[in-house]
Design a protein that fits this description.
Length: 252
């Protein structure tokens, strides 16, 4: 992935003023992060054309802890979604395998949403998508975390909608509490009922078929190797690379 000058101009005003070493511009830095997100290389293997890897790493570390790229992504999402009326949202999660290099940091350094599931050490990305390119809200948990509880947190983060919006989910989100919270926020749950329910509801299959939007979004961001496999010990750094992947998809 390469960020062009015209694409950089769209987000240049959202980036902080350079501090410390100015040998590496924000433009070069973003292309270095896009390269790392796409190829998943180690920091010391970063091509020299981007500049000293340690300088890039330290600026990324500062940006990660101050939430720079998270704010840039939020601005791009708000600007894009304000241009069209959202009629349906999709809620789902995806598992991310954790590389051995991503384990073992002391807990005092920061939160680490890493847990052991059936496939080994993993994390889980929970997301509400407005389209195959737009993530409305998302969160990160350990791999063994349940979908329902985190789904309720994301629904709370969405807030009350001005007009009714369909919320497309799979059967993991078919709990009574979750559907009730969705209805309170003017979200119409479209979710298949569990086959053992005594009083199953009717599923709108035509509407439910649109749930593939979030699967396509997961496929897009998991094309970035540093998202597909977690190499980072701290959540704040991994979240920054996920945000970078979503920003690259917005700028395409």
């Amino acid at each position: 992935m390469y960020i062009s000058r015209s694409q950089f101009k769209r987000i240049r005003h959202l980036l902080p003023k350079p501090r410390g070493s100015r040998r590496i511009s924000h433009y070069r830095l973003l292309n270095a992060l896009a390269y790392m997100a796409s190829n998943g290389c180690k920091w010391r293997a970063l091509p020299t054309r981007f500049g000293p890897w340690h300088t890039i790493y330290m600026r990324l570390y500062r940006w990660a802890h101050s939430g720079v790229l998270v704010e840039v992504l939020a601005h791009l999402q708000q600007d894009r979604l304000s241009q069209w009326c959202v009629q349906a949202l999709s809620l789902d999660s995806t598992i991310v395998k954790v590389h051995p290099d991503g384990c073992g940091a002391p807990q005092k350094n920061g939160p680490q949403a890493i847990g052991r599931s059936r496939g080994g050490w993993s994390s889980k990305i929970h997301m509400v998508a407005a389209s195959c390119r737009d993530a409305l809200v998302w969160s990160l948990t350990a791999g063994q975390a349940g979908d329902g509880p985190e789904g309720r947190h994301l629904i709370e983060a969405i807030g009350v909608q001005d007009a009714p919006v369909y919320l497309l989910m799979d059967s993991a989100y078919g709990g009574d509490e979750l559907r009730a919270e969705a209805l309170e926020r003017n979200l119409i749950p479209v979710v298949p009922a569990h086959p053992l329910r005594k009083r199953p509801w009717q599923l709108d299959k035509r509407r439910y078929s649109q749930r593939n939007e979030i699967e396509r979004l997961f496929r897009r961001i998991k094309a970035y190797r540093r998202v597909f496999t977690r190499y980072d010990k701290l959540d704040v750094v991994y979240v920054t690379f996920v945000s970078m992947a979503l920003i690259c998809e917005h700028l395409r």
